[in-house]
Design goal:
By secondary structure, the protein is mainly alpha-helical. It has 7 helices and 2 strands. It is elongated.
Length: 191
């Protein structure tokens, strides 16, 4: 008989645990169903979710600006070195152009609030002038695009940019093997 009592209490204990677990789960789910909805997701006018505040540079805006700079840099290099037309840039040339555009992007972000930039950048003349000014500053101050330009001076009469040879390059004799950091612009685009 003692074993039946022991067995009875064991069964009652297990049934009590199962019953308690069911009650706990019911309370948990009922409480969860009454929870308040989180903040509604807001989207930009282009359909992107608004994660950052309006006064922050979103990754999409950074990407679009760097991409516009990159395309403009390719056009700028090809206009200055017409022999590069229809050639695919090498990886080192692509890297130089991206580093150059990072410099341009940082200069733009430093001097422009994001709201003002978003409004003005769609005006082609303002955007083009801004990008060209910052591109020339990066080449002159930080020596970006070393394989393509040594120094840039603006031509005030035509508003074109004229690459200027450095004084060092005039005095040097042509070497049979180009230095690693100074690649020939005509070959840097070749794969």
């Amino acid at each position: 008989m003692k074993t039946d009592t022991k067995y009875f209490f064991k069964k009652a204990f297990i049934v009590g645990l199962i019953f308690g677990l069911i009650v706990f789960l019911m309370v948990f789910f009922v409480k969860g169903a009454n929870a308040e909805d989180n903040k509604t997701i807001e989207f930009t006018d282009r359909g992107w979710p608004m994660i950052l505040d309006d006064d922050k540079w979103t990754t999409q805006l950074l990407f679009d600006t760097v991409q516009a700079c990159y395309q403009g840099t390719i056009r700028w290099i090809v206009l200055s070195n017409t022999s590069l037309l229809n050639q695919i840039p090498t990886l080192s040339a692509q890297r130089q152009m991206m580093e150059h555009c990072f410099c341009v992007m940082d200069k733009i972000r430093k001097e422009n609030k994001v709201k003002e930039y978003k409004k003005k950048v769609l005006v082609p003349e303002w955007g083009g002038n801004l990008f060209m000014l910052k591109a020339m500053e990066c080449v002159n101050e930080y020596k970006t695009l070393p394989s393509f330009f040594t120094h840039i001076i603006p031509d005030n009469e035509t508003n074109n940019v004229i690459p200027k040879e450095s004084e060092d390059s005039k005095d040097e004799l042509p070497s049979p093997k180009p230095k690693e950091s100074e690649e020939d612009p005509a070959t840097i685009f070749q794969g």
